[in-house]
Design brief:
The chain has nine helices and no strands. It has about 180 residues and is an all-alpha fold. Keywords: DNA-binding.
């Protein structure tokens, strides 16, 4: 029986994620649909819906998985600086096609719960240092909204600037209380 988190369930999920990434990287740029994903993955449509509510849900969950992979490679104590953005930007560039799709569908931005590591390691300590602990969630929102739109523009335009150039741009747009 294919129950949640058994070997077959995880295998189906891996097949769907690979299908999604393959479709996103296809030079012909086919329309990404549930039908296209299940066909490419060789699974039934009902299997897709056992894993995801819909295509945006799949994109969100795939993004969360990619974010966990990225954070696993980051040092635990990262100061907010231009160099601290470069590994992240390299990761975004490597997965550019995925991020073009996910940033187009972004209608909200993740708040404290999804960005707990960023919040607890970086935003909150800097806000406390600058006497803004009561405003820390607003600082996070300002940071995320600017960061998201900058990334969206960068990936939609083919990542023409280097990750180092983008790191400088992003750092310069940070709220003043986050600049060291």
């Amino acid at each position: 029986m294919n129950t949640k988190n058994n070997q077959q369930f995880r295998r189906s999920q891996d097949l769907m994620e690979k299908a999604l990434l393959t479709l996103l990287n296809d030079p012909k740029k086919p329309k990404i649909t549930v039908s296209a994903i299940v066909k490419r993955a060789g699974i039934n449509r009902s299997t897709f819906y056992a894993h995801y509510l819909d295509l945006p849900d799949m994109l969100d969950k795939t993004e969360s998985k990619l974010r966990r992979d990225l954070m696993a490679d980051y040092p635990h104590s990262v100061p907010l600086s231009e160099p601290s953005f470069v590994p992240f930007l390299n990761f975004i560039k490597k997965h550019r096609d995925f991020y073009v799709a996910i940033l187009k569908t972004r209608t909200t931005f993740p708040l404290r719960t999804e960005q707990e590591q960023l919040f607890s390691r970086v935003i909150n300590p800097l806000c406390e240092k600058n006497g803004m602990e009561d405003e820390d969630v607003y600082v996070l929102i300002a940071f995320q909204s600017a960061f998201t739109m900058i990334l969206r523009y960068w990936v939609e335009n083919g990542c023409q600037e280097s990750p180092e150039e983008m790191a400088k741009t992003i750092y310069q747009t940070l709220p003043a209380c986050l600049q060291q």
